[in-house]
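Each field is listed here:
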Amino acid sequence: MRFTEIRISSFFVLFAAVFLFAITGLAQSGLTIVVKDSNGAVVPGAEVTISGKSILSRTRETDSAGNAHFNGVQPGEIVVVVDADSFPRTVRSVSFSGGEPIEIVLMAGGVSETVTVTAARTQLSTEDSTSTVSVIDRLGIERRSLNSIGDLFRSLAGTSTNNEGAFQVRPRVRGLESNRVLILVDGDRLNNSRTSTGQSGIEIGLVEPSLIQSVEVVRGSGSVLYGTDALAGTINVITADTPARRESGFRFGGALNTFYTSNENGRRGSITLNGASKFFAFGITQSLERFENYFVGKADGAVPPDILAIGGITTDGEVLNSQSHGGNTRATARLFLNDTNTLRFNYDRRRMANIGSPTLFGTFTGYFPFSNRDKFSARYDVVELTENLKRVSISAYYQPQLRNFTNVLTVPPAPPFFPGLYQLSETITDTKTTGFDAQTDWRVGNRNFIIAGASFFRDKNTDQRSIITSTTPSSPDRTIRNSQSVPNATLSNFGLFAQNEFRITPKVRLVGGVRFDMFATRSEPTPEFTLDPRFTEDQIEDLGLTGLTDGLDVTNQTLTGDIGVVYSPIKEISLTGRVGRSFRTPNIFERFFTDFGSVGGFLVGNPHLEPETGINIDTNFRYRSDRIAVTLTYFNNTYSNFLAQPQAVDRNGDPIVIPRPPLAPIPVFQTQNVRKARIQGVEAELEAPIKISFGYLTPYGNYSYLRGDDLTENQPLDTISPHRTNAGFRWENFRRSYFMDYNVRVVTTQHRLPPLAFQPVTQGGNGGPEPGFVAHNLSGGYYYRGERFRFNINLGVSNLLNRAYSEQFVFAPARGRSYTIGTTWELR
């Protein structure tokens, strides 16, 4: 029986055993949460959510006496989240021993608090995490008026972005991007093994923004809990769930979301129907969107000449080939078997088309005719199976991603010497991912809480590529060639993980974990995948490609771990330190891609690559009171076996080339483990609400400093933005129904660059500094919260002064001024 079949069979056996055992459960008790304000008055209509290591997440509204009652709750550690009109979100970690109600006091105008499920695979306050975490909830997303979810990372500490447009903006975390950052959707991998790490990235635009409930960004190593790719950080996009379980009766609901942005005439809308009872809940959402080409900012009413010099930009500032449109269909159902068991099914269908690559237009034009994603998933949760086994969660998913990248090369004729050249290349990548995850939560004694489990995923990739060549687009003398740059291949991973939280004293917690992974990468004999016949046998041997076209099996194992400590000398202060080992196994593209690449020559894969590894050190100081929240972070990450694409050499040390007489030979490059790098920096975050005569004024901001060093070449690391500051203030009235927000983004010029750094055309290629910029944004809105009906409207102006600039290390210029409006109409 094959590796994959054994793991899938084990998963279904485990699922059946847990399901049959769990229906009975243990004896449960009732929990009452009493919500009051700082004056001791009860707060009716507050939304109270309880969760934790031994209970299923549940939501209730407080009654006229301020009480929210939950049946079937075992004593233990519980996270209580309270959302109420006129108050910021309040999070409390409490010990429930049964019997007496638990009182939660809300402070008007205080600092909003957050919880995370990503940092520790269980819900806990961000203040209790050993990791550095940023959490943006639905309210924060709506107020930012985002074109795409990628825009969110422009304003968070320790993050930046790559690329532009309504679909292709991708996150960078602490200077790294693409497959060196793990992106999850509801805990399942969005990353796939076919995507290039150096020239492309994970398409986070495949998640529709109106479906997102929150985004959690964990900066630093995440490999112990999530495995490969979590080198620099882990991003978990959590989508909207079904309505909360009702104690009696059945209630229908729905929502309408709209969004418009003036710059690119962008429109997005979604409609949702949902319902809930004591036994089941469901939600169905359909969305559509269309974004046309965007326009750059202007200086003194005109597009600057250096921006026009980039190419693909008209004199009035239109960035050609930056459009996209598509839609999303989603259906979710949840069965409440009893107070301790729930089963969830989900189907998500994302269709995007005519996706342009900004400025990649003209002699060479590149775009994506389509990029599609389907996802079928199921999840089963049960709590309180035994006195020690507190929770079992089992999930499985199947996710096909189908993407077409097309590029067109058009060189006009120059009679009588050159007849012209037209070449259309179309590459369709079809990556199907199957995965499952099993997690168990254990309490051993009064001080140990252990999370242990197993995860598996298998990426199966097939490519189709056709190349049409002729002298002009309409010439009859065309030839059609089918080939593949990557053979049909699979990458499978099975991992075992465990993490223990040990409470040494009430003020000191120790958290440590370990993970073991097995990888199997297999290529198949593929008729349309061949090596260039101009390679000699000696060159093939020197490159390590012997047998590549006949199919190869590559296996490797990885052991990783981390340890951290949380010390809270007083309630308001938390000191944390963490050391973790991260890793990323080479993917299908890096092991097998063999063709002309974007490095200016011929690129060959390397089946013998070793995993990239990192040692990540994070230290944090956190201070949080009702009136101010401050976080200071220092991190130092050292990476080994970094992949790069140097020119390949033979056994004698001579460069390998492909002869092309009478023209110059073609240089050959190969993906290799050749670099050791260090990235270190400081991150600071501040929020301080102030009560004034007509509401609350909240200054806020964050600052990030990065320094990157290529330790192999003893020179600065490229694509590192040194100083990034986001600062602003937000005003809200006392009832928190109106708000206004102003913020400014300041990125300083990067002078510290390697000799061959990536540089935009505006700086004449290599050798100049990477320009900084300042961008201003303004927004405001109104929120209405009734018993069953909710409405909000958000208005915004991004790039308020219409500046012309580019994000650092991005060729395409940024969007100019844009007016946005978003609304939400919700029946609960």
